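Dock zinc ion; give full complex structure.
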Amino acid sequence: MRFEISKVLDAIEGRVTTDPSLARAVVDLAEVIRWQDLDGGRPASLLRLGMVIDALARELGEDSVPVYAIVHRALLSDADLTSNERMVVRRWADDGLVEVLDQPGDRVLEVADLLGLPVLSRVRFDGLQGRYPWLGQAGRVLAPVPGAGGPVFIAHVGGGQSPAAGGRSPVGVKLLARQWRCPEPGCALFGSGGGGGAFADLARVDRAPAGQPPPSLRNGVPTCPRHGARLGDAGPRPRTEVLAVRIGGLVRRRFVLTETQPVLVGRAPDPADGIVLGQWLNDEARRWISRSHVRFELRVGEVIVTDTSTNGSGVRPGGSMAEADRLALAPQQSRVLAEGDIVELYPGVQVGRADELPSDAKFSPTSVMAEAPTMAMRLPRP
Ligand SMILES: [Zn+2]
Protein backbone atom coordinates (compact mmCIF):
# COMPACT_ATOMS: atom_id res chain seq x y z
CA MET A 1 0.00 0.00 0.00
CA ARG A 2 2.79 2.42 0.83
CA PHE A 3 4.28 1.58 -2.56
CA GLU A 4 1.01 2.38 -4.31
CA ILE A 5 0.69 5.72 -2.57
CA SER A 6 4.23 6.54 -3.64
CA LYS A 7 3.20 5.89 -7.23
CA VAL A 8 0.22 8.24 -6.90
CA LEU A 9 2.47 10.93 -5.44
CA ASP A 10 4.88 10.44 -8.35
CA ALA A 11 1.96 10.90 -10.76
CA ILE A 12 0.90 14.07 -8.93
CA GLU A 13 4.49 15.31 -9.13
CA GLY A 14 4.10 15.41 -12.92
CA ARG A 15 1.18 17.83 -12.46
CA VAL A 16 2.76 20.51 -10.30
CA THR A 17 4.72 23.25 -12.00
CA THR A 18 5.82 26.85 -11.58
CA ASP A 19 6.27 27.22 -15.34
CA PRO A 20 4.11 30.20 -16.38
CA SER A 21 3.47 28.67 -19.80
CA LEU A 22 2.10 25.37 -18.49
CA ALA A 23 0.25 26.03 -15.21
CA ARG A 24 -3.54 26.12 -15.62
CA ALA A 25 -4.72 27.12 -12.14
CA VAL A 26 -3.27 28.30 -8.83
CA VAL A 27 -3.79 26.55 -5.49
CA ASP A 28 -2.68 27.02 -1.90
CA LEU A 29 -1.46 23.55 -0.96
CA ALA A 30 -1.96 24.13 2.78
CA GLU A 31 -5.64 24.69 2.04
CA VAL A 32 -6.13 21.80 -0.41
CA ILE A 33 -4.65 19.07 1.79
CA ARG A 34 -7.15 19.89 4.58
CA TRP A 35 -10.33 19.50 2.51
CA GLN A 36 -11.25 16.47 4.56
CA ASP A 37 -14.78 16.30 3.13
CA LEU A 38 -13.33 15.33 -0.27
CA ASP A 39 -12.50 11.82 0.91
CA GLY A 40 -13.49 11.60 4.57
CA GLY A 41 -9.96 10.54 5.41
CA ARG A 42 -7.11 11.88 7.53
CA PRO A 43 -7.04 15.56 8.64
CA ALA A 44 -4.42 16.29 5.98
CA SER A 45 -3.61 14.35 2.83
CA LEU A 46 -1.51 15.16 -0.19
CA LEU A 47 -3.72 12.87 -2.27
CA ARG A 48 -6.40 15.58 -2.23
CA LEU A 49 -4.19 17.62 -4.53
CA GLY A 50 -4.48 14.75 -7.03
CA MET A 51 -8.26 14.75 -6.69
CA VAL A 52 -8.39 18.49 -7.39
CA ILE A 53 -6.03 18.16 -10.36
CA ASP A 54 -8.27 15.41 -11.79
CA ALA A 55 -11.31 17.66 -11.35
CA LEU A 56 -9.52 20.46 -13.19
CA ALA A 57 -8.61 18.10 -16.04
CA ARG A 58 -12.25 17.00 -16.29
CA GLU A 59 -13.45 20.61 -16.43
CA LEU A 60 -10.89 21.65 -19.05
CA GLY A 61 -11.44 18.44 -21.02
CA GLU A 62 -7.69 17.95 -21.22
CA ASP A 63 -5.24 15.41 -19.92
CA SER A 64 -2.01 16.14 -18.02
CA VAL A 65 -3.17 19.49 -16.68
CA PRO A 66 -0.68 20.99 -14.18
CA VAL A 67 -1.34 23.40 -11.31
CA TYR A 68 0.80 26.10 -9.71
CA ALA A 69 0.99 25.32 -6.00
CA ILE A 70 1.95 27.81 -3.29
CA VAL A 71 3.21 25.98 -0.20
CA HIS A 72 3.38 27.44 3.28
CA ARG A 73 6.74 26.54 4.77
CA ALA A 74 5.04 25.09 7.87
CA LEU A 75 3.72 22.30 5.66
CA LEU A 76 7.20 20.79 5.40
CA SER A 77 6.94 19.85 9.07
CA ASP A 78 3.16 19.39 9.34
CA ALA A 79 2.61 16.40 11.62
CA ASP A 80 -0.77 15.69 10.00
CA LEU A 81 1.00 14.63 6.83
CA THR A 82 2.84 11.31 6.67
CA SER A 83 6.62 11.45 6.70
CA ASN A 84 6.51 10.24 3.11
CA GLU A 85 4.22 13.11 2.09
CA ARG A 86 6.45 15.65 3.83
CA MET A 87 9.46 14.22 2.04
CA VAL A 88 7.68 14.45 -1.30
CA VAL A 89 6.72 18.11 -0.77
CA ARG A 90 10.30 18.87 0.25
CA ARG A 91 11.51 17.27 -2.99
CA TRP A 92 9.04 19.35 -5.02
CA ALA A 93 10.34 22.45 -3.23
CA ASP A 94 13.98 21.56 -3.90
CA ASP A 95 13.18 21.00 -7.56
CA GLY A 96 11.33 24.30 -7.87
CA LEU A 97 8.09 22.53 -8.82
CA VAL A 98 6.25 24.42 -6.08
CA GLU A 99 6.81 27.73 -4.33
CA VAL A 100 7.59 27.36 -0.62
CA LEU A 101 7.05 30.59 1.28
CA ASP A 102 7.44 31.67 4.91
CA GLN A 103 4.53 34.08 4.56
CA PRO A 104 2.38 33.23 1.54
CA GLY A 105 0.18 36.31 2.13
CA ASP A 106 -1.76 36.87 -1.06
CA ARG A 107 0.84 35.27 -3.32
CA VAL A 108 -1.86 32.93 -4.70
CA LEU A 109 -3.73 35.97 -5.97
CA GLU A 110 -0.56 37.67 -7.18
CA VAL A 111 0.40 34.63 -9.30
CA ALA A 112 -3.17 34.35 -10.60
CA ASP A 113 -3.08 38.06 -11.45
CA LEU A 114 0.29 38.03 -13.21
CA LEU A 115 -0.44 34.85 -15.18
CA GLY A 116 -4.18 35.33 -15.69
CA LEU A 117 -5.00 31.94 -14.14
CA PRO A 118 -8.07 30.79 -12.21
CA VAL A 119 -7.74 30.15 -8.47
CA LEU A 120 -9.07 26.94 -6.91
CA SER A 121 -9.95 27.88 -3.35
CA ARG A 122 -12.72 27.96 -0.79
CA VAL A 123 -11.58 31.36 0.47
CA ARG A 124 -13.81 34.28 -0.50
CA PHE A 125 -11.05 36.89 -0.70
CA ASP A 126 -13.36 39.57 0.69
CA GLY A 127 -12.05 43.10 0.37
CA LEU A 128 -9.46 42.22 -2.27
CA GLN A 129 -11.56 42.99 -5.33
CA GLY A 130 -10.29 46.54 -5.43
CA ARG A 131 -6.77 45.27 -5.92
CA TYR A 132 -7.72 42.29 -8.09
CA PRO A 133 -10.83 43.30 -10.08
CA TRP A 134 -10.89 39.95 -11.92
CA LEU A 135 -11.95 38.30 -8.64
CA GLY A 136 -15.47 39.30 -9.71
CA GLN A 137 -15.24 37.54 -13.08
CA ALA A 138 -16.93 34.21 -13.71
CA GLY A 139 -14.68 31.19 -13.42
CA ARG A 140 -11.71 32.99 -11.85
CA VAL A 141 -12.27 31.67 -8.30
CA LEU A 142 -13.82 28.22 -7.98
CA ALA A 143 -14.25 26.13 -4.87
CA PRO A 144 -13.65 22.38 -5.23
CA VAL A 145 -16.35 20.57 -3.22
CA PRO A 146 -17.30 16.88 -2.92
CA GLY A 147 -19.22 15.46 -5.89
CA ALA A 148 -20.40 12.03 -6.95
CA GLY A 149 -17.30 11.07 -8.94
CA GLY A 150 -14.73 13.22 -7.14
CA PRO A 151 -14.54 16.97 -6.52
CA VAL A 152 -16.65 19.36 -8.58
CA PHE A 153 -16.26 23.14 -8.82
CA ILE A 154 -18.76 25.66 -7.59
CA ALA A 155 -18.61 29.39 -8.11
CA HIS A 156 -17.43 31.07 -4.97
CA VAL A 157 -17.05 34.67 -5.90
CA GLY A 158 -17.75 35.67 -9.48
CA GLY A 159 -20.12 32.97 -10.75
CA GLY A 160 -19.66 30.22 -13.34
CA GLN A 161 -18.56 26.63 -12.80
CA SER A 162 -15.89 26.25 -15.44
CA PRO A 163 -12.41 27.57 -14.77
CA ALA A 164 -11.66 30.61 -16.91
CA ALA A 165 -8.28 32.09 -17.67
CA GLY A 166 -7.80 35.78 -18.29
CA GLY A 167 -4.76 37.21 -20.00
CA ARG A 168 -1.50 37.93 -18.21
CA SER A 169 -1.69 41.32 -16.49
CA PRO A 170 0.36 44.15 -18.05
CA VAL A 171 2.82 43.86 -15.13
CA GLY A 172 2.94 40.09 -15.65
CA VAL A 173 3.80 40.57 -19.32
CA LYS A 174 6.64 42.94 -18.37
CA LEU A 175 8.03 40.68 -15.62
CA LEU A 176 7.87 37.61 -17.84
CA ALA A 177 9.75 39.31 -20.65
CA ARG A 178 12.97 39.16 -18.58
CA GLN A 179 14.84 36.42 -16.80
CA TRP A 180 15.72 36.96 -13.17
CA ARG A 181 18.47 35.92 -10.82
CA CYS A 182 18.14 35.47 -7.06
CA PRO A 183 21.28 36.36 -5.03
CA GLU A 184 20.54 33.46 -2.68
CA PRO A 185 22.78 30.49 -3.65
CA GLY A 186 20.87 27.51 -4.95
CA CYS A 187 17.53 29.30 -5.24
CA ALA A 188 15.18 26.73 -6.75
CA LEU A 189 12.97 29.39 -8.34
CA PHE A 190 15.44 31.93 -9.72
CA GLY A 191 18.68 29.98 -9.63
CA SER A 192 21.11 29.05 -12.36
CA GLY A 193 20.11 28.07 -15.88
CA GLY A 194 20.76 30.17 -18.96
CA GLY A 195 23.75 32.40 -18.27
CA GLY A 196 24.81 30.46 -15.17
CA GLY A 197 25.42 32.84 -12.27
CA ALA A 198 28.31 32.85 -9.84
CA PHE A 199 26.69 30.11 -7.82
CA ALA A 200 25.43 28.08 -10.75
CA ASP A 201 27.40 25.06 -9.59
CA LEU A 202 25.64 25.12 -6.24
CA ALA A 203 22.13 25.23 -7.65
CA ARG A 204 20.26 22.00 -7.22
CA VAL A 205 18.23 22.68 -10.31
CA ASP A 206 19.47 23.76 -13.66
CA ARG A 207 16.23 25.47 -14.37
CA ALA A 208 15.43 26.56 -17.89
CA PRO A 209 15.18 30.37 -17.79
CA ALA A 210 12.13 30.23 -20.08
CA GLY A 211 10.26 28.37 -17.35
CA GLN A 212 11.02 30.73 -14.47
CA PRO A 213 8.05 31.59 -12.26
CA PRO A 214 6.77 35.17 -12.11
CA PRO A 215 8.70 37.28 -9.57
CA SER A 216 6.84 38.82 -6.68
CA LEU A 217 6.47 42.58 -6.96
CA ARG A 218 7.17 44.35 -3.67
CA ASN A 219 7.00 48.14 -3.71
CA GLY A 220 7.52 47.93 -7.44
CA VAL A 221 10.69 45.85 -7.11
CA PRO A 222 10.90 42.32 -8.62
CA THR A 223 11.56 40.12 -5.59
CA CYS A 224 12.18 36.43 -4.97
CA PRO A 225 9.01 35.25 -3.21
CA ARG A 226 11.00 32.57 -1.39
CA HIS A 227 13.95 34.62 -0.13
CA GLY A 228 12.56 38.15 -0.15
CA ALA A 229 15.67 39.26 -2.02
CA ARG A 230 15.70 41.77 -4.84
CA LEU A 231 16.12 39.91 -8.13
CA GLY A 232 18.77 40.83 -10.65
CA ASP A 233 17.77 41.32 -14.28
CA ALA A 234 19.57 38.61 -16.28
CA GLY A 235 18.49 39.75 -19.72
CA PRO A 236 15.59 38.99 -21.99
CA ARG A 237 13.74 35.76 -21.38
CA PRO A 238 14.07 33.31 -24.28
CA ARG A 239 11.09 33.13 -26.59
CA THR A 240 8.74 30.21 -26.16
CA GLU A 241 5.85 28.62 -27.98
CA VAL A 242 3.43 26.27 -26.26
CA LEU A 243 2.46 23.28 -28.38
CA ALA A 244 -0.15 20.63 -27.66
CA VAL A 245 -0.55 16.98 -28.58
CA ARG A 246 -4.10 15.96 -29.52
CA ILE A 247 -4.89 12.27 -29.92
CA GLY A 248 -8.35 11.09 -30.96
CA GLY A 249 -9.65 14.62 -30.42
CA LEU A 250 -8.40 14.90 -26.85
CA VAL A 251 -5.50 17.13 -25.84
CA ARG A 252 -3.19 14.75 -24.01
CA ARG A 253 -0.49 17.18 -22.99
CA ARG A 254 1.14 20.51 -23.68
CA PHE A 255 4.84 21.24 -23.95
CA VAL A 256 7.04 24.29 -24.23
CA LEU A 257 9.31 24.86 -27.19
CA THR A 258 12.26 27.22 -26.66
CA GLU A 259 14.90 28.54 -29.05
CA THR A 260 17.61 26.59 -27.26
CA GLN A 261 16.02 23.16 -27.18
CA PRO A 262 14.35 21.27 -30.06
CA VAL A 263 11.68 18.78 -29.00
CA LEU A 264 11.21 15.32 -30.52
CA VAL A 265 7.74 13.83 -30.65
CA GLY A 266 7.13 10.17 -31.37
CA ARG A 267 6.24 6.74 -30.08
CA ALA A 268 9.20 6.59 -27.69
CA PRO A 269 11.85 9.34 -27.96
CA ASP A 270 14.24 9.94 -25.07
CA PRO A 271 11.96 11.55 -22.45
CA ALA A 272 14.77 13.98 -21.56
CA ASP A 273 14.13 16.01 -24.70
CA GLY A 274 11.13 14.27 -26.19
CA ILE A 275 7.40 13.79 -25.90
CA VAL A 276 6.47 10.11 -25.57
CA LEU A 277 3.13 9.25 -27.20
CA GLY A 278 3.25 5.44 -26.93
CA GLN A 279 0.87 5.17 -23.98
CA TRP A 280 -1.98 6.83 -25.93
CA LEU A 281 -1.61 5.00 -29.26
CA ASN A 282 -3.47 1.99 -30.62
CA ASP A 283 -1.57 -0.85 -32.29
CA GLU A 284 -1.83 0.52 -35.82
CA ALA A 285 -0.66 3.98 -34.78
CA ARG A 286 2.21 2.38 -32.86
CA ARG A 287 3.33 0.51 -35.96
CA TRP A 288 3.20 3.64 -38.12
CA ILE A 289 4.75 6.17 -35.76
CA SER A 290 8.52 6.07 -35.37
CA ARG A 291 10.29 6.29 -32.01
CA SER A 292 11.16 9.90 -32.90
CA HIS A 293 8.71 10.89 -35.59
CA VAL A 294 8.92 14.67 -35.87
CA ARG A 295 11.23 17.36 -34.49
CA PHE A 296 10.01 20.82 -33.53
CA GLU A 297 12.31 23.84 -33.38
CA LEU A 298 11.72 27.49 -32.58
CA ARG A 299 13.82 29.83 -34.71
CA VAL A 300 13.36 33.60 -34.54
CA GLY A 301 9.80 33.11 -33.42
CA GLU A 302 8.89 30.57 -36.10
CA VAL A 303 7.97 26.97 -35.38
CA ILE A 304 9.72 24.59 -37.75
CA VAL A 305 8.70 20.97 -38.03
CA THR A 306 11.01 18.34 -39.52
CA ASP A 307 9.92 14.79 -40.23
CA THR A 308 12.42 12.34 -38.75
CA SER A 309 10.31 9.23 -39.32
CA THR A 310 10.34 6.19 -41.57
CA ASN A 311 6.81 6.62 -42.86
CA GLY A 312 6.35 10.37 -43.11
CA SER A 313 3.76 12.78 -41.69
CA GLY A 314 1.18 15.24 -42.87
CA VAL A 315 0.28 18.87 -42.32
CA ARG A 316 -3.27 20.18 -42.16
CA PRO A 317 -2.97 23.81 -43.36
CA GLY A 318 -4.94 26.19 -41.18
CA GLY A 319 -6.27 23.20 -39.27
CA SER A 320 -8.42 22.04 -42.22
CA MET A 321 -9.71 18.52 -41.67
CA ALA A 322 -10.63 18.13 -45.38
CA GLU A 323 -8.54 15.25 -46.77
CA ALA A 324 -7.97 17.13 -50.05
CA ASP A 325 -6.13 19.89 -48.15
CA ARG A 326 -3.78 17.57 -46.27
CA LEU A 327 -0.15 18.05 -47.33
CA ALA A 328 2.35 15.23 -47.13
CA LEU A 329 5.52 15.83 -45.13
CA ALA A 330 8.02 13.28 -46.45
CA PRO A 331 10.79 11.84 -44.27
CA GLN A 332 13.53 14.47 -43.66
CA GLN A 333 11.32 17.26 -45.05
CA SER A 334 10.91 20.51 -43.06
CA ARG A 335 8.20 23.12 -42.99
CA VAL A 336 7.48 26.38 -41.19
CA LEU A 337 4.19 26.10 -39.35
CA ALA A 338 1.83 28.82 -40.54
CA GLU A 339 -0.99 30.10 -38.37
CA GLY A 340 -3.42 27.31 -37.53
CA ASP A 341 -1.33 24.57 -39.16
CA ILE A 342 -1.59 21.16 -37.52
CA VAL A 343 1.05 18.45 -37.91
CA GLU A 344 -0.41 14.96 -38.19
CA LEU A 345 1.85 12.02 -37.39
CA TYR A 346 -0.89 9.52 -38.13
CA PRO A 347 -4.63 10.07 -38.62
CA GLY A 348 -5.92 11.57 -35.37
CA VAL A 349 -2.45 12.04 -33.81
CA GLN A 350 -1.83 15.77 -34.06
CA VAL A 351 0.48 18.49 -32.80
CA GLY A 352 -0.15 22.22 -33.08
CA ARG A 353 -0.01 25.49 -31.17
CA ALA A 354 -1.87 24.95 -27.90
CA ASP A 355 -4.22 27.92 -28.41
CA GLU A 356 -5.17 26.62 -31.86
CA LEU A 357 -5.76 23.01 -30.84
CA PRO A 358 -8.74 22.64 -28.51
CA SER A 359 -9.94 19.33 -27.16
CA ASP A 360 -12.98 18.26 -29.15
CA ALA A 361 -13.64 14.74 -27.94
CA LYS A 362 -15.44 13.31 -24.98
CA PHE A 363 -12.99 13.30 -22.14
CA SER A 364 -11.65 9.92 -21.13
CA PRO A 365 -9.41 10.84 -18.25
CA THR A 366 -6.10 9.38 -17.32
CA SER A 367 -6.37 9.97 -13.60
CA VAL A 368 -3.34 10.83 -11.52
CA MET A 369 -5.17 8.85 -8.85
CA ALA A 370 -5.34 5.65 -10.91
CA GLU A 371 -2.91 3.96 -8.56
CA ALA A 372 -4.61 5.15 -5.38
CA PRO A 373 -5.56 2.32 -3.05
CA THR A 374 -9.30 2.15 -2.37
CA MET A 375 -8.70 2.94 1.29
CA ALA A 376 -7.37 6.39 0.46
CA MET A 377 -10.19 6.90 -2.02
CA ARG A 378 -13.09 6.26 0.36
CA LEU A 379 -15.45 8.86 -1.03
CA PRO A 380 -18.13 10.31 1.21
CA ARG A 381 -21.71 9.91 0.05
CA PRO A 382 -22.64 13.07 -1.81
ZN1 LIG B 1 15.41 33.06 -4.23
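Observed: Confidence is low (pLDDT under 50) at residues 193-205, 374-382.
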